[in-house]
Every structure is written in structure tokens, then in C-alpha cells.
Write a structure and sequence with these properties.
CATH superfamily of the largest domain: Alkaline Phosphatase, subunit A
Oligomer: single chain
Structural class: alpha+beta
Strand order of the largest sheet: 2-22-11-1-10-7-8-9
Shape: globular
Number of strands: 22
Strand content: 15-25%
Radius of gyration: 24 Å
CATH class of the largest domain: Alpha Beta
Number of helices: 18
């Protein structure tokens, strides 16, 4: 340690750099623009390492853990919030404790007594020992996989008493078809941003702090919930946008965040470095349908040739219209009404009858209704409905929020495995061949960018490996209808959340050590923590995979 220079670091969860750049150039975000113009700005391009290759990566929770620990997932072992148990074929996704536990690698700001730190609502973090100062997690945020807690323990209750409960916390679900939901989410985000700004400013004034760090989960909510009302590249835009009468609600939310950033900067010390970043961005959602619904059905049809469970269509027919109404009032119910039934009378009845009569299984799949009624983890996600069949399948799709995840049902590893280790490569190749033929039925474009193998050998037992054997990297094509020469047509399927994750983030910073209008070479989310430590004058741990972006010409070993 050679010096102490205060840093104010603010993470805008899922704030997309393309949108930010456009809105800054148009003058809509003056406070954020000022940081960029007075200092450094560049995009972040996220990738992770698998056995066979590296690949772009857009999964929220692991990216925030990469930022907080300075380590990639192959080091932490934290790839996903979804867990799979090979002994039972069960999946879990703990909505509170499903994030990283920070036992092996602590947050970069756990710097001991030499540094005073305030960390407020940094996504996917925990209250950890080794932080001299205050920590608050879970006041707000987009469905956080971490608990609501604080250091000291009575601080969060005091914050809630003074500023109120966060109106968005664990309540935003991207219900694009509900006008009442639109009204609620726009009003709630505005209230959440205003309260967050007050909390941040008050904590700053309680300093001095060597590091003040905060997260804005509202930008994540805005992207997931309002993208179709804001950006013409979303397939639902022409059916749902009201920009002529209401304006751009996503931009309006970002402008509220910009005003909050201005207030926080005004409350910061004059000599502070101010750093603003997003670990990933947001675009038209393509992975909800492809990874959560389409891929499980693809694997079903590969395993049971000639059969279809959900979304059976006819590749010989023209592409049907996009579904623009949600007649069942929920995405799971909308997907379930696409369950295959050969009898047209039964099909009509199942489509329009009351949900209380639709609790039975169909085509070997679990009905979502009892799963939802009993609050089964991930019961709303179509991939889970196929789980009774997993033990009989050569391979199946695990529930996934971003990239597609495929598990091989392997003898000697999965309890009822049916694939011999010597057959593993052939099964992987068979599946990859089918995946590479998947097309968007509306444009004719191929959908799969890359399929990656995650293991050196079938029975590799390294506990830090991801659960899937194959990871499907999709092209960024938001489609509701896919065609395959091998398994036929799937869809159309009702769109889920309008916005979906992108691997690109950004970082901008201004301060005494940063030249105006400068930039840096390629960076990743894993570099953000190292950059903050560098600006603070603190040591960067030698185990970090990340490095400071302020002096990219210096190697990590040279700096240490």
C-alpha cells in the first residue's frame, strides 16, 4: 500500500452499453455523460474458460461474483444459481442463498482495518468478515440470490424504518401483457431510485470512506420489463409500444437513475475517483425461450424420435403469427397450453378450460399448476416439467437463465445413467449435430453460435466443474419459432420477459489519476475489483484473474 485515495463505485445492474452510449450522445444522461467525458470509458467483453474453449458469458450472478472476487468461475466453482443433484435428478435454485458463499474467495473490499468501506446493495454479495465499515445487502435488487442482512446487524432495519421497504424487491417479473403491471413497475422503479439516492448520499455523508460502493438494481428491472416498449429490435415492439403517447418508459427510468447519480457525485468527496460500471448489458430477450423452453423440447425429441411434448408445429406450413396476447395470464400457463394433444377436441378443451382442471401430467411432463401452487423451486420453468423423464433419457436440458445447459445421463455418475463412458463422445456429437441445424423459422438464420464441452473426460469429478456437459451459446436472435430438419418445428411460443442479458458491460471513471477522454483495452467484469483496488492504492491479491484497467500496459506481476 502506497497511498489512500477515496473511490466511489456504482454498479448499474444490466445497464446496456449500446443504450447508454446512444442516450448519452443524445444528451439524455448528463450526469453519467460527465463521468465519461471527464475521464475514461470503454466496454467490457465478458468470457469464461471451459475445458474445450472459452466463450462469451452473460449470466448475472456469476458475473457479479467475478467482479467481487476478481476470479473466474473455473476458480470459484460458481457457474450458476441452479444446482443439479445426480443422485436424485433434482434441481434447486435457492432464491435467498443461491449465490456464492464467499468462503474461499472473499469480496475484494474485505481489506481489514486499514480501509473504511461502505458497501450498499452490491448485487450477489454477502455480509462478510474483514470489512471495516458498513455493509447492507438485500434492501433492493432484481430477485437477488443473497439474503437481506447488514453490518452492524441493526443497520438494515434502521434503513427500512427511515426510508421504507424497497417497492421492487423480489416483485419484478416482466409481465409485459398486463397494463396494471406496467403502471406498477414504472412507479415503483421511480420510488426505488429516489430512495436509493437518499440512502447513498446519507451513507456518504457518514464517512469519510476509502471506498463507497453501491448497486442500482433498478436498471436490471427496467431492461427485463420494459425493453419491448423502448427498442424496435424486440419482436413485440410493433404490437406493444406506446412511445407516441407515453414516451420511452425505459429511457425515463434511466433518466431517473442519472439524476440519482448526479446527487451521489455531489455528495462525494471532491478528491474522489468516481467509477460507474455494468458487469453485463441487456437486449431483446432470446434466452428465455431458447434455453428455458425450446432446448428441453429439442432434447425430448432427440430422445423420443417421432414424438413431441410441447409446441408441435408443421415445418411445411408458413410461419404462424407472433402471439401477442397472453390468454392464460402467466408465461408458464401460456407455454403449457402448447402441450401436444393429437385429439382436436381435447386440445380445444385444454386450451380454454379453467386451470383447476389442468393439474395432471401430460406426455410424461409435469403440469406447472401444482408446481406453482406448491411453490416448487423453478416450477415455473418448462425445463423442470421434463424432469420425470430425465432418468430415461440419454441427455436432457437443465434449467438455465442464459446459455443452454445439457446434461449427459452418464453411467457411473448419474444414478440411473444409461450412457456408457465410451459412448459419451458419440452422444455429444449426435446432440451437437442436431443443435447446429436449428433455425429461426421466421428469418431462416441458424440459432446456435457454439456448443462447448465442459469436461476433459466423461467421469471427471472436479467439484468446480459446471453441472452441464454441453453449454449452448446462442446467437442473439429473439425468436418464438424454430425449425429443424431433424426434429421438426417448435412454436410459436409466447414471449417471456422482454429484456435478456448480453455479455457486454462497460466501465467509466473520472478522478485525479485519470486523463479526460481516455480509454482502455479489452476488459471484463473480473477486472472491475482490481481497478477499484488500484485507484484506492490497495494491493491486488496475487490470485486474482482480473487486473487493473487504469494501467493496462502493466502486467499483474509487475504491479505486485
Amino acid at each position: 500500500m502506497s497511498r489512500k485515495e477515496p473511490v466511489v463505485a456504482i454498479g448499474l445492474d444490466a445497464a446496456d452499453p449500446k443504450l447508454m452510449e446512444k442516450w448519452m450522445s443524445q444528451g439524455h444522461l448528463p450526469n453519467i455523460s460527465q463521468i465519461s467525458q471527464q475521464g475514461i470509458y470503454s466496454r467490457l467483453h465478458n468470457s469464461v474458460n471451459y475445458h474445450s474453449d472459452s466463450a462469451e458469458f452473460s449470466s448475472t450472478e456469476p458475473l457479479w461474483v467475478m467482479m467481487a472476487t476478481g476470479c473466474l468461475p473455473d476458480k470459484t466453482g460458481f457457474w450458476d444459481t441452479v444446482t443439479y443433484e445426480p443422485e436424485t435428478y433434482k434441481v434447486g435454485c435457492d432464491a435467498v442463498y443461491g449465490g456464492y458463499d464467499y468462503q474461499e474467495y472473499k469480496p475484494f473490499y474485505a481489506l481489514g482495518s486499514e480501509y473504511r468501506v461502505a458497501a450498499f446493495d452490491v448485487p450477489v454479495t454477502r455480509v462478510c468478515p474483514g470489512v471495516e465499515g458498513v455493509q447492507i445487502t438485500g434492501w433492493g435488487g432484481h430477485h437477488p440470490f443473497y439474503p437481506s442482512e447488514s453490518q452492524p446487524v441493526d443497520l438494515l432495519p434502521k434503513v427500512i424504518e427511515q426510508y421504507g421497504k424497497n417497492p421492487v424487491y423480489r416483485k419484478d417479473n416482466g409481465i409485459w401483457w398486463d397494463k396494471n403491471y406496467f403502471q406498477w413497475v414504472t412507479e415503483s422503479v421511480e420510488k426505488s431510485v429516489a430512495s436509493r439516492a437518499k440512502i447513498c448520499c446519507d451513507i456518504l455523508r457518514d464517512g469519510p470512506w476509502d471506498l463507497f460502493m453501491a448497486g442500482f438494481g433498478e436498471t436490471h428491472t427496467l431492461g427485463h420489463d420494459l425493453y419491448n416498449l423502448s427498442q424496435p429490435d424486440h419482436p413485440l415492439y410493433e404490437y406493444t409500444n406506446k412511445i407516441d403517447s407515453l414516451g420511452d418508459p425505459m429511457l425515463q427510468g434511466y433518466q431517473q437513475v442519472d439524476q440519482a447519480i448526479g446527487k451521489i457525485i455531489a455528495a462525494a468527496p471532491d478528491n474522489a475517483h468516481v467509477l460507474l460500471f455494468a458487469v453485463h448489458g441487456m437486449g431483446a430477450n432470446h434466452t428465455d425461450l431458447l434455453s428455458m423452453m425450446m432446448l428441453p423440447e429439442v432434447l425430448y425429441r432427440i430422445n423420443f424420435p417421432g414424438k413431441a411434448a410441447l409446441g408441435r408445429g408443421d415445418v411445411k406450413q408458413p410461419a404462424p403469427p407472433v402471439i401477442t396476447r397472453n390468454i392464460r395470464g402467466g408465461w408458464s400457463a401460456e407455454v403449457w397450453r402448447q402441450v401436444y394433444e393429437a385429439n382436436p377436441i381435447k386440445k380445444f378443451w385444454e386450451t380454454w378450460t379453467h386451470k383447476k382442471f389442468l393439474h395432471g401430467s401430460k406426455n410424461g411432463l409435469l403440469s406447472p399448476y401444482p408446481l406453482l401452487d406448491n411453490n416448487v423451486e423453478l416450477g415455473w420453468m418448462p425445463a423442470v416439467w421434463y424432469s420425470p423423464l430425465w432418468s430415461t433419457m440419454k441427455a436432457f436440458a437443465l434449467p438455465a437463465y442464459a446459455d443452454g445447459h445439457i446434461r449427459i445421463n452418464l453411467k457411473g455418475r448419474d444414478r440411473h445413467g444409461i450412457v456408457e463412458p465410451q459412448e459419451y463422445d458419440n452422444v455429444c456429437t449426435e446432440i451437437i449435430d442436431v443443435l447446429q441445424g436449428l433455425k429461426d423459422a421466421r428469418s431462416g438464420e441458424l440459432l446456435v453460435k457454439k456448443v462447448i464441452r465442459t469436461r476433459k473426460s466423461p467421469l471427471d469429478s472436479d467439484p468446480k466443474l459446471p453441472d452441464p456437459d454441453l453449454v449452448v451459446i446462442w446467437k442473439t436472435i429473439a425468436t418464438d419459432l424454430i425449425d429443424s430438419p431433424d426434429i421438426g418445428r417448435i412454436g410459436p411460443i409466447t414471449y417471456n420477459r422482454p429484456g435478456g442479458h448480453r455479455e457486454n458491460g462497460f466501465l467509466m471513471a473520472k478522478g485525479p489519476r485519470i486523463s479526460p477522454d481516455s480509454s482502455f483495452a479489452d476488459g471484463r467484469a473480473v477486472d472491475v475489483g482490481a481497478t477499484i483496488l488500484d485507484l484506492m492504492g490497495a494491493d491486488i491479491p496475487p490470485y486474482f484473474d482480473g487486473q487493473s484497467l487504469i494501467q493496462p500496459s502493466l502486467s499483474l506481476s509487475q504491479k505486485n
